[in-house]
Specification:
The complex is a heterodimer of chains A (about 100) and B (about 160). With about 100 residues, chain A is mainly alpha-helical. Chain A has a single domain, classed as Arc Repressor Mutant, subunit A (Orthogonal Bundle). Chain A contains five helices and two strands, in the order ββααααα. In chain A, a hairpin with a 2-residue loop joins strand 1 and strand 2. Chain A is globular. Chain B has about 160 residues and is an alpha/beta fold. Chain B is built from six helices and five strands; from the N terminus they run E-H-E-H-H-H-E-H-E-H-E. The radius of gyration of chain B is 16 Å and the shape is globular. The chains are: A mainly alpha (about 100), B alpha/beta (about 160). Chains A and B meet through helix 3, helix 4 and helix 5 of A and helix 1 of B.
Chain lengths: ~100, ~160
């Protein structure tokens, strides 16, 4: 675990850059993490996915993986991969300030 | 950490059983979830995974399968294979695993390439019309190697 300063705020992240404490997150931080991951600009569709991920995690305690994301986020799987080419669920979780989804499907 | 990350995989599915098909599909989908480029190549009985008439009816082999931990004579009993498949299928449904047709759609939508092996298609006297829409092409082994260039090849 390391402390990283993102958008002027100190946050705790793990080796892969996922947040240890989701409550340290703000939208400005999310935008900064996205930029660092090569996603710029963050469109409304990107935010829709990121906010859905975050909401699901805070509600249920686990982040949805790709199949659930494609079914429930309102963004189909094809578009998810266009928005986040390096892994939609993984990247959206990172930007959303929540742990990496651990589902295998 | 430190090792080069995997950037591309080409997975060959050669078996037509339930437990022969799912691992390859999970690995291909899992690769795409990690942002790894992926191809799937269906050969021999692995073609059943993409055969529209068959891919909803694949079974776990109950004969000659020590992993089931049942007596050999019992495995050959009528209905055993269907029963074992049903039980495993139920558990997978509880865990929210997709069916094979839905899984193929998911993998295709994720941007992976899905290919049928020409030699096997000819051998089983099949054609493009027998396969699900998600199949990109029927290709030769040489074309498979071209597509697999620069990545890892996994045979299942």
């Amino acid at each position: 675990m390391t402390t990283k300063t993102i958008a002027g705020i100190d946050v705790e992240v793990n080796d892969e850059g996922f947040f240890e404490q989701p409550d340290q997150w703000t939208e400005a931080i999310g935008a900064e993490v996205a930029k660092e991951a090569g996603i710029e600009p963050m469109t409304d569709r990107h935010w829709q996915v990121v906010k859905f991920m975050r909401h699901q995690y805070l509600e249920t305690g686990s982040a949805p993986s790709i199949r659930a994301l494609g079914k429930a986020s309102g963004v189909p799987v094809k578009e998810l991969y266009q928005l986040f080419p390096k892994g939609p669920a993984k990247l959206a979780a990172k930007i959303a300030g929540i742990p990496k989804p651990r589902g295998c499907i | 950490m430190g090792a080069e990350p995997i950037e591309k995989v080409s997975i060959i599915l050669s078996k037509g059983s339930f437990d022969g098909i799912y691992p390859g599909l999970i690995m291909a989908n899992g690769a795409r979830m990690e942002g790894i480029e992926a191809n799937l190549f269906f050969t021999f009985f692995g073609l059943d995974a993409i055969n529209k008439a068959r891919n909803e009816h694949v079974k776990v082999a109950s004969v000659g399968n020590p992993g089931l931990h049942i007596a050999t004579w019992l495995g050959g009993f009528p209905g055993m294979s269907a029963m074992v498949t049903h039980k495993l299928g139920q558990r997978m449904e509880e865990l929210d695993f997709p069916s094979i047709p839905e899984f193929l759609e998911l993998i295709h939508d994720s941007g992976a390439g899905l290919y049928a092996c020409k030699a096997s298609v000819d051998m089983f006297e099949l054609s493009r019309a027998d396969f699900v829409d998600e199949i990109d092409d029927i290709i030769t082994v040489g074309e498979f190697y071209e597509k697999a260039a620069g990545g890892q090849i996994i045979f299942t």
